[in-house]
C-alpha cells in the first residue's frame, strides 16, 4: 500500500517567530483534512538564511511560509515567482514544484482580497482608500490592481513611499492608482468607498488608531483592518459607529494559509477550522 514517503513537511521561517500563530492553524487544518502534514516553526538568524534555505531544498521540503524579516531577502534563493510576489516584491509562501525547483508566491494580498470579495462581491466599480505603503499595504495594493478595482488611492505617512508604490503599479491593469497627502485627520466622506487600514498602527498597542475620521451617514462603506488581534480594533470600532460594514484581519490571515495549503497539497482545507484554531490561540 505504501508507495513512498509523503511530501508532508512544511515550515515557517522568521525572526522572531515567538507569537506567530500559523502553526496552530496548519496543525488543525491537517487534522481536519486527514493529511499527515507536519508544520515546523523555525527562528533563523539572518546570516543563516541561505544555509537554512539550502537545507530545506536538500530535504525536499514541500513548502512553507516566510515572515519578517525575510520576505524580500529570500528572492535570490528561489527559482521562480508568481506575479503577486514580483509586483509586491515580497514572498510569504514557498512551494516545491514538480521539477524540484522552488516558487515564491505572495498569498497575503490574495488572502485579503478573498475576504473582501466574500464580503462585498464584485469590486470592479469600487474605489479603495488604502492606508500604508509597507509590506502589508503593498501586497494588498497589488491584488486590488490585479483584480481591476476602479481606483486605488494610497495614503501613507511618508507620501514618497506611497508614490513609489503607485508608480510600480500604474499601467499594470486599467486600475487608476493615485496618492493623497495625509496631513491632520483624513476624513472619509464618500459613500461606497472601501477603506483599508494596512499600517502597523494598532499592531502592538490595540488602543491606537490611525488619524482618520468617518463622516456620519455613510451607508455603504466597507472598513477593513489588517491587524488581526484583536479582531475588533479601534479603527474598526470607529468605522462601525457611523454604520460602516467592517472586515477584520483574521480572515486575511486564514485565507493566506488556505491558499498556501492549496499551493502545497492541491487540497482545499477547511477555513472555518483554521479560523477557530487562531481564535483559540489568541484567547
Ligand atoms: P508591515 O509589514 O506591517 O506592512 P512595514 O512594512 O514596516 O510593516 O510598514 C509599516 C507601515 O505602517 C508603513 O506604511 C508606515 O508608514 P511610513 O511609510 O511613513 O513609515 C506605517 N506606520 C507606522 N507607524 C505609523 C504611525 N505612527 N502613523 C502612521 N503610519 C505609520
UniProtKB/TrEMBL annotation:
Pathway: Metabolic intermediate biosynthesis; chorismate biosynthesis; chorismate from D-erythrose 4-phosphate and phosphoenolpyruvate: step 4/7. CDD domains: NAD_bind_Shikimate_DH. HAMAP family: Shikimate_DH_AroE. This is Shikimate dehydrogenase (NADP(+)). The gene is aroE. Shikimate binds at residues 67, 92, 108, 256. Keywords: Amino-acid biosynthesis, Aromatic amino acid biosynthesis, NADP, Oxidoreductase. NADP(+) binds at residues 83, 132-136, 156-161, 226, 249. InterPro entries: Aminoacid_DH-like_N_sf (IPR046346), NAD(P)-bd_dom_sf (IPR036291), SDH_C (IPR041121), Shikimate_DH (IPR011342), Shikimate_DH-bd_N (IPR013708), Shikimate_DH_fam (IPR022893), Shikm_DH/Glu-tRNA_Rdtase (IPR006151). Homodimer. It is an enzyme of class 1 (oxidoreductase). SUPFAM superfamilies: Aminoacid dehydrogenase-like, N-terminal domain, NAD(P)-binding Rossmann-fold domains. It comes from the Bacteria. It catalyses: shikimate + NADP(+) = 3-dehydroshikimate + NADPH + H(+). Involved in the biosynthesis of the chorismate, which leads to the biosynthesis of aromatic amino acids. Catalyzes the reversible NADPH linked reduction of 3-dehydroshikimate (DHSA) to yield shikimate (SA). One of its GO terms (biological process) is amino acid biosynthetic process. Belongs to the shikimate dehydrogenase family. Residues 249-279 form the SDH C-terminal domain. GO terms for molecular function: NADP binding; shikimate 3-dehydrogenase (NADP+) activity. Its EC number is 1.1.1.25. Residues 13-94 form the Shikimate dehydrogenase substrate binding N-terminal domain. NCBIfam families: aroE. The active site is at residue 71. Residues 117-178 form the Quinate/shikimate 5-dehydrogenase/glutamyl-tRNA reductase domain.
Amino acid at each position: 500500500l505504501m508507495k513512498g514517503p509523503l511530501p508532508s513537511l512544511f515550515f515557517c521561517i522568521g525572526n522572531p517567530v515567538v507569537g506567530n500563530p500559523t502553526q496552530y492553524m496548519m496543525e488543525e487544518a491537517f487534522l481536519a483534512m486527514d493529511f499527515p502534514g507536519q508544520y515546523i516553526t523555525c527562528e533563523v538568524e539572518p546570516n543563516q538564511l541561505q544555509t537554512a534555505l539550502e537545507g530545506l531544498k536538500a530535504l525536499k521540503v514541500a513548502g512553507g511560509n516566510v515572515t519578517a524579516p525575510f520576505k524580500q531577502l529570500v528572492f535570490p534563493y528561489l527559482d521562480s515567482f508568481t506575479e503577486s510576489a514580483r509586483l509586491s516584491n515580497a514572498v510569504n509562501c514557498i512551494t516545491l514544484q514538480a521539477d524540484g525547483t522552488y516558487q515564491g508566491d505572495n498569498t497575503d494580498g490574495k488572502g485579503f482580497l478573498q475576504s473582501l470579495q466574500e464580503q462585498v462581491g464584485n469590486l470592479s466599480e469600487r474605489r479603495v482608500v488604502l492606508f500604508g505603503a509597507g509590506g502589508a499595504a503593498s501586497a494588498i495594493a497589488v491584488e486590488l490592481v490585479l483584480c481591476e478595482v476602479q481606483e486605488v488611492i494610497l495614503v501613507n505617512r511618508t507620501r514618497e513611499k506611497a508614490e513609489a508604490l503607485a508608480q510600480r503599479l500604474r499601467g499594470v491593469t486599467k486600475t487608476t492608482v493615485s496618492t493623497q497627502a495625509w496631513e491632520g485627520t483624513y476624513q472619509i466622506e464618500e459613500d461606497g468607498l472601501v477603506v483599508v487600514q494596512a499600517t502597523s498602527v494598532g499592531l502592538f498597542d490595540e488602543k491606537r488608531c490611525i488619524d482618520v475620521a468617518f463622516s456620519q451617514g455613510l451607508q455603504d462603506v466597507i472598513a477593513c483592518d489588517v491587524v488581526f488581534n484583536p479582531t475588533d480594533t479601534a479603527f474598526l470600532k470607529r468605522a462601525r459607529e457611523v454604520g460602516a460594514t467592517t472586515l477584520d484581519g483574521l480572515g486575511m490571515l486564514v485565507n493566506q494559509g488556505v491558499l498556501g495549503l492549496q499551493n502545497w497539497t492541491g487540497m482545499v482545507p477547511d477555513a472555518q477550522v483554521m479560523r477557530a484554531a487562531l481564535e483559540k490561540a489568541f484567547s
